[in-house]
Every structure is written in structure tokens, then in C-alpha cells.
Amino acid sequence: MISKPRFSTEAGRLEAFSDGVIAVIITIMVLELRPPDGTDLRSLHALIPTFSAYVLSFAFIGIYWNNHHHMLRASDGIDGRTMWANLHLLFWLSLVPFTTAWLGRNPFAPVPTALYGFVLLMDAIAFTVLQAALLKVNGPGGAFAKAVNADVKGKMSLALYVAAIAISFLSTIAADALFVAVAILWIVPDRRFEPVIANRSDGRKSTDAKGGSTGR
Known about the structure:
It contains 9 helices and no strands. The chain has one domain. The protein is an all-alpha fold. The longest helix is centred in the middle third of the chain and has 29 residues, at 110-138. Helices cover 73% and strands 0% of the residues.
């Protein structure tokens, strides 16, 4: 009997479920973009804060979707701890539409800005928890562990979120600038897991050529 890699079953289902939830999150956010009553370009001016908050949150959701995909692809499999950690991440991501809408309607208010930053901080922490759960599955000495240990951008993001929350009560513009800085930091693709994925793919191709597992 041909054996299949664990990713094609457990992790594949987890990724598909997560993709569906993330798609719903984006849909909810875009529904907050209500057209203005006016018909000229000036009537769109009032929508600038809401649209700006939407664009920023869309970028963050896209970054999580991209990194989530690569991290699962680099893992040898998942376990029950990973599934709960993934739900924990999706819970905090599901709150992004609410905080985005509140920030868009009150762009210069400290509390909506701070809450927006808090949810982003919890998103980042939840992703770190998921990463740690997958590390337990893959073991401390493998290629996945080496990729995870080089998490400089993750640590920087946590520090910037904490700073943004604190500074939001002094200057919401400065806090917004820090949110944008984190997004720009992650717009450049996170390539930590790409070598792990490539090596796994090469290994499967080699096995296929010898008449072993198809990897599908």
C-alpha cells in the first residue's frame, strides 16, 4: 500500500478550514465599506479613514494567510495541540473586522486605536503559539526548528505593537505609523520556510522516481 504524507490529510484539512475562515473575515471587512450618499468625488472624502483602515487590515490578513500557508507546508504534520492553537489564531483574526470598523469610524480616538493594536498584538501572539505547537510536532533539531529560530521579524512585530498601543494615548497618528511599519516589514515575503518546503518536495520527487510514495 502506498503511504501518504501526513500533510495531505490532517494539515491539508486544517489549512483548507483556515482559508475558509480567512475568506469570511475579508468578506465581513469589505461589507463595512458603505457607498456615500453623494454622487461626486468629494463625497468619497468621508470614506478615506474607513478605506485606509480596511486596506491596512486587508494587508495584515493577507500576510497571516501567506505565512500560515508556508508554515503548515513546512511542517511534518499536526496534532491536537496544533488544532487548538490554530483555532486560537482564527479567533483573534476574526476580531479584526470589528476593530477595523471602529477605527475607521473614529480614526483619531485613542481607545479604538489602542484596541486595534491590541487585537493585532494578540494575532501575533497567537501565531507564535501556533508556531510553538508545530515545533513540538517537528522536534527541536530539524529543519523546521532552524527556520522557526530565525524569527527576527516576529519579535520586532511584537515590540512595535506594544509600543503602538502605549503611544496611541499620546498620538494616534504615531500609533498608525507603527501599524503601517509592521505591515511593510512583513510585505517582503517570509522566506524562512521555503527551503524546508523545497527540500521536502525534492525528497518526495526522489522517492517517486524510485517507485515509492507519490506524496499526493
